[in-house]
C-alpha cells in the first residue's frame, strides 16, 4: 500500500545559488536503504508543513547519514515559505519517486543539454557520467548570467569537463542564444549515443528535434518533464501526459515514448490551441 | 452521511443545492435534481459551497478592540459594548448619526430584523445594503417607467423566448445557470444577441455580438428605438393600450440616424438595423441586463433606455419577454424586498407615506421617524465628516468592494464605534471595534429571494461553529439590551411570519407553502396564492408605463494624454465579491491567474509588454501593481480588472462619480495609465493618491 | 453464479444483512433528488430503487470527497487512516458497480479506499429497463450486474417476485442463515430478455460509437475541441458525478489546537489550474485541451487496455449536470460529425 505520510527531515543549511534560487542541504532523520539507492533524475516530495508538498529533484543523493541537497527556485507560496524557514526546521520527505536517467551510460558518448533550473536534475548524472562515460559533453543555457544556478558545481565542471555555457542575454564576448544553436558546433561530426535534456519544455523539444535530425535515434534522447505533482503515486492525476503519469512513469521519458504518448492521446500544444480559440 | 436541500449562497440566480453532511461538517455539495431554476446543475462556485462554510478560519467568538488590538470576548461583554456605543452615539449625534448596513448575502429573516432594528430601536431610516453598487439604478429606473424595479419575468421564460438580448452582463460567468439556460434556448432555436464592450464567452457563442464602445449604452438603445420608429416596427397596439404618450420620446429621438448611432457606439449600421428588426419583430423577446448597464453615472437613465426599447416593442407582460435585471448576490433581491433601503419598509411600502409609517408604528409599538434615511455612501460620507457615531455592518465588505477604498477606510476610521457582524475577518472587519460572529447559510433556517423574486427555503444542516449566531438572533438580543420588545422570535419561521403579515406582496407565503412549491415568486397574496411568475400582464403599477426621453452622457472621466486607457471592472466565474468565500476553496483559489489586468494583445505589443509582465496601473485616485493577462475579450484601448482580490484592489483606481438619482458610483468606466515595472516590485505598491 | 434463490421480500434480506452491518440505500429527499444514506436501525421502508442512478454515485462512499491523509504536530508526521465498520450497500446498479470495479483497480494500493472497500458487502440490482439518458450497452456495459463486481444480485422476476443471485463467497456466507429456496430455472432466460429490452430501449447510440472511434484514432481536430472548450465553464460537475473520475488535490488546514492537517479533496481536470505549475507554465492551458484529455481518459485505447474497460460506464450523469451541454452525448455528437 502507498504511504502518503511524509518522514521528517531537517533543514541543515541553505545558500543563495542563482536568481531567486537557494541550494538546500537536508538530512533525513531516519534514512532507509531505498533512500540511499536514489538515482539521478528521481525526485522526492518536500513538505513544508502548512503549505503543502511539491516535487524536487536531488542535486546530491542521500548519503549514509541521510544528507542530500536540492535546488529550489522561489516561484510560489510553498517555496516562499521554505525560503523563510530557520535552519533546523523540520520538513517532510517522501521518496525517492519516479524514474531517473538511464543507467547504461558506461562507455558511451553522452550529451547533456540543460536550461535554467533544469541543470539540477542533471547534476548527479553529470558527476556520475564524468567517471564512466566514454565522452561527456555538457551545454547549459540560461536567460542571463545572474539566472544561472549551481555555481559551485559549475565551477568544478568548468575545470575538467567538456562544458559550455550560453545565455539569452549574454555579457559582451560571451556565448549567447539557445543551447540548440550551439549543438552543431559542439558535436562536430560526432553523433552522441545518448542525449539527456532538462529545461523549459520548448527547449527540450527543440533539442530533441535537432538531435533527431542529426541522426540520434529517438529512444536515445531523454527528457525530464516538469509537471504539477501532489501524490507521487500515480493517483491524484495532475501530472498526466496522455495515458502516463509523470510521477511514476517519468519524469524521465525518452523522446520516442513522449511522441507516442502525445500522439496516441491526440494531445495538441497550447500554441496550436490558441490558433483556434 | 445525509443530504440537506438548500439554496446556493453565491449569486442571485438561486440554484438548488444539496448539502452533503458527514461527521458534523458539510463535506460536499450536489445540485438539487429537478430544481425549477437550476434544473439539476451548478456552476464552479455552487459546487464549492462546502469550503465557504468550513469552520476553519471562521470567526467563532465575539472580538472587541482593546489598546488597538482585537481580542476574544464573551457575548455579554461584546453586546454591552455595542449597546453602550449605540446609546452614546444616539445622545451625541441623534438618530441620523447611527445606522445599519445590512447584507445581501444574509437571509430575509436577518434583513427583516436589521431594518426593524434600525427603525424601531435606533429610530432611524439609515438602513441600506450593497444594492447601491449593483442594481439601485434598476430599482430607480424601472420604478419611474413601470412602477416596480424587479425582474419582470422568470428565468424559465428563457425557454419560451424567440430572441434573447443580453446587455452588459457576463452571464455564463456570473449567473452561470441562467447563461446555461440561454445556451439551451439557443440550441432549441432561439436567437441570442449580446451587447457588451467585452467579447465575453456568451458573446463568442451568440448569433450576434454588438461590441459597443464603453459607456455608449444610451446612444445605442436610443438609436435602436429610432430605427424601429422610423421603420414603423413599433408595437402600436401595446403603445396605445399600455403606455403613456410616446410623442415626447419620438420628438427626442427624431433625426438620429443609424450612421450617427454607429459613430457614437462603434457598432456597424447593419448590426443596428438587424437587431432593431429582430427585437421588434420577435414574437417574444427577453432582455437580460447586468452591471454593464447600472454601474455608470448614467445608470438610472441607462435602465430607462432599456425600458423604452422593450415598451416600444411591447416586449413586456407576456411569456418569454420582459426587462430582466440580473442581480448579483444570493439575496440582494430579498434585502431590497425586506426594506433594507432608506426609503421603503418591507414589501416596498414607502417611508414617505404617513399611513405606512402609522401601520408599522402600530405593529412595532413605537413611533416611526419621518426624516428620510441615508444610503450607505451617505453614511460613510457623514462618517468622514465626523457626523456619524456608530455604524453596524452585517456581512458586507465595503472597504474592498466600494469605489475609492481609501475614502471608505478613512471614513470608517472616523466613527466612534464600528460594529461588524461577520463570518470571516474581512478588510472591513479588520477595522471594527467589535466583531460579532455570524452563522453561515448552512447553519440556519430561513429564506433567500432570487433575482426572479422567488422566495426559497434554506435549511439548517449543522450547528454554527463556536459561539456564532444568526444575525436576527444577535439583533434581537441587542434590542433587548436597549430596552425594546418585539424581537423575541423563537425561530426564523416566526420572523418570516411577522414579515409576511406586514407586507401585502408576501401575505400568502409561509414556510409550508414555500416547501411545497420549490419557492414562490412575489407578489403572492390572496389573489395570487401560487405567486407571480410574470409581472405586468394586464397593467403596470403606474397604470400606464412611461416612455422617458434620456440622452447619452459620456463617462465622468475619459482617457486623455495623462491617463490614455479606458478602465473597466468585471468579475471572474470562479470568484465572488471580495473573495472571502470563494478563496477558501483550494480549487477556486488555484484558478486565480497570475495576471489580473486584462489587456488586448495589440495594446501589449504596441507598448512592448509581455504576458504576465509586472505593471503599474494608475488613475487620478490611486495606483497599484499587478500582472498582465493578454486577452482579446477587450477592444484595444480598454483595460479591465476583476475586483475580487485584496492583493490588487482595483477600487483604488475606480471613480466615485455618481448617478445623480441613486448615488450609484461609476465603477464601469474611468481613465488610467499603464507602465512596466521591475520584476521585484511587490503588490504592496498599491496606494492612494490622497490620504 | 454460485446460486440462485427465490426471495420473498428484499426488505427481509436487508434486515438480515443489517445484523452487524451499517446499511446504506438510495432514498428520495422529497425535493426531487435521491441520495445514498445510512438507514436507521430497524428501518423497514420498502426497497424502491430510483428510476435512474442518483446524481452522486457510490463513489464517495469509498473515495471520500474530503479526507485527512496526515497530521503534523511540529515534530512528527502522523498518518490518518479511517476506522471503518462493516457495511452493506443495498441496491447498486450495474453501471455503478462497473465503475466501482474500475476504481478498485485504480486505487488498489490506496489504503484509505481499500479499508472502506474491504468492509463493504455489495448488493447489486439488475435494471429491467433503461433509465432516461443511460447508454450502458453502448460502452461495453450492461444493465445486468456483472457477477465479478458484486456479492449478491437482486432482480425482479417475471412472476412479480424477486430472485437473489449469489455472486461471491462473501455473499453466500452473508445469506446462509436465511436458508432461501432455490429459484426457478428461468432466471437466466429472464436476464437475457432484460438485456435485450434495455438494448432496444437504448438503441444504436451511433454517436457514442463514432465518437469513441474518433478519440481512439486521435482524429478530432484541435479547433473542434476548442469549440467544445468554449462551452466548458470549468464547474467540476462532470468530474464530481462521474463514478470513475478519481483526481484529487491537497488541502492544508490548521486545526484548532495548532496541529497542521493535510487533507485530500476531489479535484477536476477541467479546472484551468489543474496542471498549472508554480512557474505559471500550463501544459493544458486551454479549455479545449482539458476537455480533450477528459474524454481521452474515458475512451482512449491505452486506458481501456490498462483497465480492461472504458472509463465511461454509460450512466449519463455528465449529460445531466453539464451547464454547457457537453456531457457524453453532447461531446460525442459534436466530435463524430463529419
UniProtKB/TrEMBL annotation, chain A:
Cofactor remark from the record: Binds 1 FAD per subunit.
InterPro entries: Cbr1-like_FAD-bd_dom, Cyt_c3_hydrogenase_gsu, Dihydroorotate_DH_Fe-S-bd, FAD-bd_FR_type, FNR_nucleotide-bd, PyrK_electron_transfer, Riboflavin_synthase-like_b-brl
Superkingdom of source: Bacteria
One MF annotation (Gene Ontology) recorded for this entry: oxidoreductase activity
Binding site for [2Fe-2S] cluster: 231, 236, 239, 247
Coiled-coil regions listed: none
Cofactor(s) needed: FAD; [2Fe-2S] cluster
GO BP annotations listed: pyrimidine nucleotide biosynthetic process
Gene3D superfamilies: Nucleotide-binding domain of ferredoxin-NADP reductase (FNR) module, Translation factors
Cross-referenced SUPFAM superfamilies: Ferredoxin reductase-like, C-terminal NADP-linked domain (SSF52343), Riboflavin synthase domain-like (SSF63380)
Binding site for FAD: 71-73
Keyword annotations from UniProtKB, A to Z: 2Fe-2S, FAD, Flavoprotein, Iron, Iron-sulfur, Metal-binding
Domain FAD-binding FR-type residues, every copy: 4-103
Protein name in UniProt: NAD(P)H-flavin reductase
TrEMBL record, chain B:
Domain 4Fe-4S Mo/W bis-MGD-type: 1-57
Top-rank lineage group of the source organism: Bacteria
CDD domains: MopB_Formate-Dh-H
GO function terms (MF aspect): 4 iron, 4 sulfur cluster binding; formate dehydrogenase (NAD+) activity; metal ion binding; molybdopterin cofactor binding; NADH dehydrogenase activity
InterPro entries per record: Asp_de-COase-like_dom_sf, Formate_Dh-H_N, Formate_DH_asu, MoPterin_dinucl-bd_dom, Mopterin_OxRdtase, Mopterin_OxRdtase_4Fe-4S_dom, Mopterin_OxRdtase_prok_CS, Prok_molybdopt-oxidoreductase
Keyword Ion transport in annotation: no
CC per GO annotation: membrane; oxidoreductase complex
One GO BP: respiratory electron transport chain
Keywords for this protein: 4Fe-4S, Iron, Iron-sulfur, Metal-binding, Oxidoreductase
EC number annotated for this UniProt entry: 1.17.1.9
Keyword Glycoprotein among record annotations: no
Protein name: Formate dehydrogenase major subunit
From TrEMBL, chain C:
Superkingdom of the source species: Bacteria
InterPro entries reported for this sequence: 4Fe4S_Fe-S-bd, 4Fe4S_Fe_S_CS
PROSITE patterns recorded: 4FE4S_FER_1, 4FE4S_FER_2
Pfam families: Fer4_22 (PF17179)
Protein name: Ferredoxin
Keywords attached to this entry: Iron, Iron-sulfur, Metal-binding
SUPFAM superfamilies on file: alpha-helical ferredoxin
Lineage: Bacteria, Pseudomonadati, Pseudomonadota, Gammaproteobacteria, Pseudomonadales
PANTHER family xrefs: ANAEROBIC SULFITE REDUCTASE SUBUNIT A (PTHR40447)
Species whose genome carries this gene: Pseudomonas fluvialis
